[in-house]
């Protein structure tokens, strides 16, 4: 059923497939099951494939907000979520991901999955770090930076800006003592980080350096 939905959503040939791999989707579902988030956020919905897997891993009472900039894709995601009977669990918001994150109160979110504009990964990191509660889970797709990003952004035709931003993201999470991170090699790589449950010592900055928490 899920495969049929995905195939139908891509069939018109206007969209290059950019959803996570099947293996990655299962890993996301598994991580969601383990984290048991009440409040989860996904940045970059596309046609809803990863959103559906995250939603399937949610505990009772848990909700996912899926943020997608493209109104047509947001509508396709809504439709696909509805076909699978997950409408009560997923809200699809048509909005810029960074702008959305900036509107969220600090330490109010249990899980963030980053998969929107690759060039903005460091900004997403900083805002996600702020909105995550201690013990919150942060997952970033494409951590191996080995995908073809040429179809994702007209302003970055060879994907070099995307690759460089992902690299800076990886360096930044590795240097941030208040994040415990590890790379899972599903698909193009999932960088998985937990915000330290105890006193945070430092937070990431947009240039990849680390500054102490005041
Ligand atoms: C790689 S796809 C997401 C795939 C999806 N997570 C999945 O696995 O099924 C990236 C998506 O991010 C969306 N996007 C790009 N820039 C964005 C932005 N600034 N804010 C929100 N969404 C954005 C694109 O329209 C695209 O649908």
TrEMBL record:
<keyword id="KW-0808">Transferase</keyword>
<keyword id="KW-0489">Methyltransferase</keyword>
<keyword id="KW-0949">S-adenosyl-L-methionine</keyword>
<dbReference type="InterPro" id="IPR002935">
    <property type="entry name" value="SAM_O-MeTrfase"/>
</dbReference>
<dbReference type="GO" id="GO:0008171">
    <property type="term" value="F:O-methyltransferase activity"/>
</dbReference>
<dbReference type="InterPro" id="IPR029063">
    <property type="entry name" value="SAM-dependent_MTases_sf"/>
</dbReference>
<dbReference type="GO" id="GO:0032259">
    <property type="term" value="P:methylation"/>
</dbReference>
<dbReference type="Pfam" id="PF01596">
    <property type="entry name" value="Methyltransf_3"/>
</dbReference>
<protein>
    <submittedName>
        <fullName>O-methyltransferase family protein</fullName>
    </submittedName>
</protein>
């Amino acid at each position: 059923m899920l495969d049929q939905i995905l195939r139908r959503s891509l069939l018109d040939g206007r969209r290059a497939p950019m959803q996570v791999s099947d293996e990655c989707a299962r890993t996301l579902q598994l991580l969601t099951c383990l984290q048991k988030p009440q409040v989860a956020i996904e940045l970059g919905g596309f046609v809803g494939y990863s959103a559906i897997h995250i939603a399937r891993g949610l505990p009772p009472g848990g909700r996912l907000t899926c943020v997608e900039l493209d109104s047509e894709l947001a509508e396709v995601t809504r439709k696909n979520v509805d076909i699978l009977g997950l409408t009560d669990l997923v809200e699809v918001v048509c909005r810029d991901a960074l702008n959305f994150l900036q509107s969220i109160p600090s330490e109010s979110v249990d899980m963030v999955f980053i998969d929107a504009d690759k060039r903005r990964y460091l900004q997403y990191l900083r805002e996600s770090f702020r909105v995550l509660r201690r013990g919150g889970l942060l997952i970033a797709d494409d951590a191996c930076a080995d995908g073809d990003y040429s179809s994702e952004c007209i302003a970055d035709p060879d994907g070099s800006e995307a690759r460089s931003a992902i690299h800076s993201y990886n360096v930044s999470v590795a240097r941030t003592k208040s994040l415990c991170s590890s790379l899972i090699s599903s698909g193009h790589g999932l960088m998985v980080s937990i915000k330290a449950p105890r006193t945070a010592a430092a937070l990431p900055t947009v240039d990849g350096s680390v500054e102490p928490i005041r």
